[in-house]
Amino acid sequence: KMAYEKKKNDESVKILKNHIKEKNLAKLYVFCGEESYLKEYYRKTIEKMISTGGFDSFNIIYLDDEAITEDSLTDAIESLPFGAEKKLIVLRDPQFGWASKFRKPLPEVFASLPDYVCMILYYQAIEYTPDKRMALYKSIEKNGVIVEFNKARGAELVNWLRRRFAANNKAISPADCDY
């Protein structure tokens, strides 16, 4: 099972990389897992893709769990991007307890996101533990991409370190990487 989960997680990261490479972002992502560096790296990458320079406060919206209300989410989704094709909405550490207060069910909200929205459910301080039987999870899975960033281990980590060094015109030996 562990090998299957790792393969599934690797596939979701490949899907995300492909979306970024093709400049064709999904409407909904879930960023979760213990590898905070990669989560932050890909969030910033998407933010840079959407950024227009002068209008970021209109096109990049962060809502923390306690600030997410039906009105704040509706305003974020329905306001059109300004001077850009897309807008980014990042919900930080959403726990969905607030969703019970919505008139419009959250699964329906996720299913009907406009094409100009890229939303990231960004789990940083808390763990993403979905109830896979619930309509909310099924909507997220159907309408978005769940990307779990796991910590790199062994040879994978050594290769990553060597690539990071090479990108900065530096070299490092595998032995130093292991250390």
Task: State the separation between the terminal residues, measured CA to CA.
Answer: 30 Å
Number of strands: 5
Portion of residues in beta strands equals 5-15%
Percent of residues in helical segments?
40-55%
Describe this structure in words.
With 179 residues, the protein is of the alpha/beta class. 46% of the residues lie in helices and 15% in strands. It is built from 8 helices and 5 strands, in the order αβααβαβαβαβαα. The protein has helices at residues 2-21, 36-50, 56-59, 70-78, 106-111, 135-143, 154-167, 174-178; strands at residues 28-32, 60-64, 87-92, 117-122, 145-148. A 5-stranded parallel sheet has the order 2-3-4-1-5, with helices on both faces. The longest helix is centred in the first third of the chain and has 20 residues, at 2-21. It is globular and about 60 Å long. The relative contact order is 0.18.
List the main descriptive attributes of the protein structure presented here:
globular; 5-stranded parallel β-sheet; alpha/beta; disordered N terminus; 5 strands; 179 residues; 15% strand; 8 helices; single chain
Summarize this structure briefly.
The chain is α/β, with parallel strands linked by helices and 179 residues long.
Fold topology:
Elements: H1 2-21, E1 28-32, H2 36-50, H3 56-59, E2 60-64, H4 70-78, E3 87-92, H5 106-111, E4 117-122, H6 135-143, E5 145-148, H7 154-167, H8 174-178
Parallel strand pairs: 1-4, 1-5, 2-3, 3-4
